[in-house]
From TrEMBL:
<dbReference type="Pfam" id="PF03107">
    <property type="entry name" value="C1_2"/>
</dbReference>
<feature type="domain" description="DC1">
    <location>
        <begin position="213"/>
        <end position="261"/>
    </location>
</feature>
<dbReference type="InterPro" id="IPR053192">
    <property type="entry name" value="Vacuole_Formation_Reg"/>
</dbReference>
<protein>
    <recommendedName>
        <fullName>DC1 domain-containing protein</fullName>
    </recommendedName>
</protein>
<feature type="domain" description="DC1">
    <location>
        <begin position="160"/>
        <end position="203"/>
    </location>
</feature>
<keyword id="KW-0677">Repeat</keyword>
<dbReference type="InterPro" id="IPR046349">
    <property type="entry name" value="C1-like_sf"/>
</dbReference>
<feature type="domain" description="DC1">
    <location>
        <begin position="301"/>
        <end position="340"/>
    </location>
</feature>
<dbReference type="InterPro" id="IPR004146">
    <property type="entry name" value="DC1"/>
</dbReference>
C-alpha cells in the first residue's frame, strides 16, 4: 500500500541521516586518536546534551551531533563549547568548561618561588574572562581564545626542514630558528634530531622573493657567516645564527630579517621559487657604476673616472654630492673626479 511504501521511505531517510558522518572532530576525543561526530535527525536529545545538559535547545534545529565512540550527543553549536575537552596544549589531563568563580581552591599546591601564576591562562599568560577550561588535577587553565586553537601534533613534510616537526606542548621561550624572535604565545614545533625550533607562522616562509627596494632576488638562509650586518628595512642588527633573507650577488651585502622581508608593507606575497628569472619579463637592473680599478669607478652620468678620496676639511668643505645634492662634509670618503673636480 501507499502508506507502507511511505513508511519504508521515511525509515531509509532516517537511517541515512543517522549514519551521515561529518568532518567535525569530537571535542572529547584525544588529539592523538581523533574521531568525528555523526549527524542525527532531530534537535531533541533524550539523554541530554553533553555540553549544556538540556534535551531541547532550539525548537527548529533539524539535527544534532552524536559520537558513537564516546556515546555522547551535542546540540548544533553546543559542540563548540563542550563541557570537557582534551587539548594539545595540555595532553596530560582532560579540561572542564568552568566558571572562574566556581573553580575550587586547590590546597595541595605547593607554594614556591616559581613565577608561574595559576590564575592566568597557562598558554598566553593573560587574565581569562568569566569562563575557562580548567584541569582539576594540576590547576592548569586555558582561556577560550586559546582553547579554539587546535594545532597538528606532527608536520610530516615541512617546507623548510628535512625532518618531521613535532608540536611543542610548551610556550617557546627561546628564539625561533627561522625569525630569531621570542614569542611565547605562538604555537611552535621542534625537531628533536636537529634541536630545531620554529614558530608555526614561520614554517612556510617563502624560499625566494623579490622586493621593489632591491634589484636582485633574495634567498631564505638558515644562517650566515658571522659578521656585523644590519637589516635594510628596520636598520637593526641581524643575528646571523637565525633565518634571514640575503642577496647572492657578488659584492652585494643586502640582508633582511625574515619578518621584515615578508611584512605586508614590504613584500607583495609572490614567491619566486619555481619561476625562471628570464621568464619574469622584468626590466634588467643596471648598476649606476662599475669598478675599473682599485678605488676607481666609472659612473654612468660622468665622462671621467672617479677615484675614492678621503674627506679633507680644508679642501672639500664647499663640495656637494652631484647625485643627492647634500654636502659631503658628513662622510669620511667619497668619489671625486681629479680632472674636473
Amino acid at each position: 500500500s501507499k502508506k507502507m511504501k511511505k513508511e519504508r521511505k521515511n525509515k531509509k531517510v532516517e537511517k541515512k541521516e543517522v549514519d551521515q558522518s561529518c568532518e567535525i572532530k569530537c571535542p572529547v576525543s584525544h588529539p592523538t586518536l581523533p574521531h568525528t561526530l555523526f549527524i542525527r535527525a532531530g534537535g531533541s536529545i533524550q539523554s541530554g546534551c553533553f555540553a549544556c545538559g538540556k534535551q531541547k535547545q532550539f525548537l527548529r534545529d533539524p539535527f544534532h551531533y552524536h559520537c558513537t565512540t564516546c556515546d555522547v550527543d551535542y546540540h548544533d553549536r553546543c559542540h563548540l563549547r563542550s563541557k570537557q575537552i582534551t587539548h594539545p596544549y595540555h595532553l596530560q589531563h582532560p579540561l572542564t568548561f568552568t566558571r572562574l568563580d566556581e573553580i575550587p581552591v586547590n590546597n595541595n599546591v605547593v607554594h614556591t618561588r616559581s613565577r608561574i601564576n595559576f590564575d592566568l591562562c597557562g598558554w598566553c599568560v593573560k587574565n581569562p574572562d568569566t569562563w575557562v577550561y580548567s584541569c582539576s588535577i594540576c590547576s592548569f587553565r586555558l582561556c577560550l581564545p586559546c582553547s579554539e586553537k587546535n594545532p597538528l601534533l606532527t608536520i610530516h613534510n615541512p617546507k623548510n626542514h628535512h625532518h618531521p616537526l613535532y608540536f611543542l606542548p610548551r610556550p617557546l621561550l627561546v628564539p625561533c630558528d627561522a625569525c630569531g624572535l621570542v614569542r611565547a604565545w605562538e604555537t611552535s614545533y621542534t625537531c628533536f634530531q636537529c634541536n630545531y625550533m620554529v614558530h608555526e607562522s614561520c614554517m612556510d616562509l617563502p624560499r625566494i622573493i623579490k622586493l621593489t627596494r632591491h634589484p636582485h632576488r633574495l634567498f631564505l638562509a638558515p644562517y650566515l657567516p658571522r659578521e656585523v650586518l644590519s637589516c635594510s628595512v628596520c636598520y637593526k642588527a641581524v643575528d646571523t645564527r637565525y633565518g634571514q633573507y640575503s642577496c647572492h650577488h657578488d659584492d652585494c651585502s643586502y640582508v633582511l630579517h625574515s619578518k621584515c622581508a615578508t611584512h605586508d608593507t614590504v613584500w607583495d606575497g609572490r614567491e619566486l621559487e619555481w619561476e625562471d628569472p628570464e621568464d619574469q619579463n622584468e626590466p634588467e637592473d643596471v648598476a649606476s657604476f662599475k669598478k675599473v680599478g682599485h678605488d676607481l669607478i666609472e659612473y654612468f652620468d660622468h665622462e671621467h673616472h672617479l677615484r675614492l678620496e678621503k674627506y679633507d676639511g680644508a679642501r672639500d668643505a664647499t663640495k656637494q654630492c652631484q647625485a643627492c645634492v647634500f654636502p659631503i662634509n658628513n662622510v669620511n670618503r667619497f668619489y671625486d673626479c681629479n680632472q674636473c673636480s
